[in-house]
Amino acid sequence: MDPCIPLPIPNDQLEDLVDKAKDYALMHGICMRQKDNFDRDALHFAPFVLFPTPFPRDEYRKSVELQTVLNELMHKVAHDYDFLKETLNHTIKVDEFTGRLWNIYETIMGEGGPTQLLSLGMLRSDIMLDQHCCCTCGSCSPERECEKSGKSFCSWKQVELNTIASGFGWLGPASGLLHRYVVAEAGHSELLKDIPDNGALEGLAGGLVEAWKIYNKPKSVILFLVEDVTYNVCDQKFHEFEIRKQCPEVFVIRKTLTELANRAQLNQDKSLWIDGHEVGVVYMRCGYHPDQYPTEKEWEARLLMERSLAIKCPSINYHLAGTKKVQQELAKPGQVEKFLGYKAQIESVRDIFTGLYSLDHDEVGNKSYEAAISSPEKFVLKPQREGGGNNVYGADIKPFLEKIKDSEERNAFILMDRIQPPITTNYMVRPGQAKAQLVDVISELGIFGYVIGDKHSIHT
Q: Can you give the C-alpha Rg of the chain in angstroms?
């Protein structure tokens, strides 16, 4: 796919634009703390590409419109106990982390269900263009045809759907601000109209504020549950700043799971208190990885939180609904139909599903196993984890699967068709590197949405 402006550009222009872009990023909070040289008082700009990535306009619009349907789907999935139990039945026996989450859910249900019936879902659907999914309807516009018909792409396919700690609600919109500035400085102001507005930050902060108002305790706070050390601090803090902008009456506090374990308590009415603050809403920016529960105390804190009256984002059932096994189950024929009533909705969701396969020890799972061993380059192997960096690709799949062939650990993974996105070129800019590198890049689009509701209905 061609870049939005012809590349390469003259070296003197490149150096000027990179210097300006770095300064813009630093002065607008498009930053992170460094992991390898941590300093609480120092920020470096987040890595970025110099120019915006092109997407087909119709596909972009379709992805935005689809998000409300995905919100409804995941809300209903999260509140279907029987579906979650059946889907995760094998996984919770072999994946300890998912098993611990399930035990909390079972404890809550065994106590008569959650104290707080409302959940706040703040979701991010990650999608990629796939250039190998030909349109067969015969009536699509030419740009919807795939490369087999002489074009480079066809439609979106979903990589995953995140239900916990869905990051980049600030850094995503901020990249658009950066690209508007760079494109104009490069003398291509005619392209500004093609860079879409991004209201993710306002929407997500608005969801948190709305949940706080529903809790209806003016002196309660919004609790950001954070890591012991936060590297992606700007992404989190800009949510706080936007909350303050939208609703000056509410205060945000930041606590770790360990701090919650040591100092939080429930009152008789199940309200959650810490350090003299009643918590109206809990927004989890951690708790999605086993390393974030170093001792039993952190697990006890998670259960305490789930027992509380606070509105959780996510509640434990929403967390479980975001597992890869649930994603794989929903891709089976007839499953989406259990949760969505309109044919157009069902078809729009199914259109973004790529092949997702079980690896359980049964006839279906064994068939998937053999396919992956035979053609590993066609697949991605996924565990039940969030946070990135956990997948197995390409040539690494065969030895990995052979190692766990006869182990129950196989049940903890799913297999996904590898998406073949179009490749474009761009300049990659990283902190500490003197020169921007002209590289081939592939792009993923994350669409945010939020939903508030209970088992019976969606409020917003």
A: 23
Cα 139 from Cα 155, distance rounded (Å): 15
- pTM comes to 0.93
Mean pLDDT of 63-70: 97
CA distances from 418 to 176, 249, 421 (A): 28, 47, 9
d(CA 283, CA 305): 11
CA distance 67 to 46: 27
Tokens of 188: 């291509």
> Pairing relation of β-strands 356-358 and 311-313?
unpaired
Decide if 326 contacts 43 (C-beta within 8 A): no
Whether the ω angle into residue 399 lies within 30 degrees of 0, i.e. cis, is no
Return the beta strands (E) in 368-453 as ranges. Answer: 379-382, 392-393, 414-417, 424-429, 437-441, 445-453
Q: How many other CB atoms are found less than 10 A from the CB of residue 308?
A: 23
Task: Tell me whether strands 48-49 and 424-429 are parallel, antiparallel or unpaired.
Answer: antiparallel
**Considering only CA atoms, which of 225, 177, 226, 219 is closest in space to residue 198?**
177
Residue 391 main-chain phi, psi, to 5 deg: -80, 160
Please, what is the Cα angle at 289 between 286 and 294, to 5 degrees?
90
Render the burial of 173-185: b for 16+ CB within 10 Å, e for the rest: bbbeebbbbbbee
User: Tens of pLDDT along 99-144?
Assistant: 999 999 999 999 999 999 999 999 999 999 998 655 555 555 555 4
Closest CA to 395 of 414, 372, 413: 372
Mean pLDDT of the chain: 93
Amino acid at 29: G
Confidence of residue 155 (pLDDT cuts 50, 70, 90): confident
Query: Alpha-carbon distance 98 to 317, whole Å?
Result: 11
Cα angle 141, 349, 419 (rounded to 5 degrees) comes to 75
Q: Tell me: the pLDDT tens digits for 268-286?
A: 999 999 999 999 999 999 9
Query: Where does residue 329 fall: left (phi above 0), alpha (psi -120 to 50 degrees), or beta otherwise?
Result: alpha
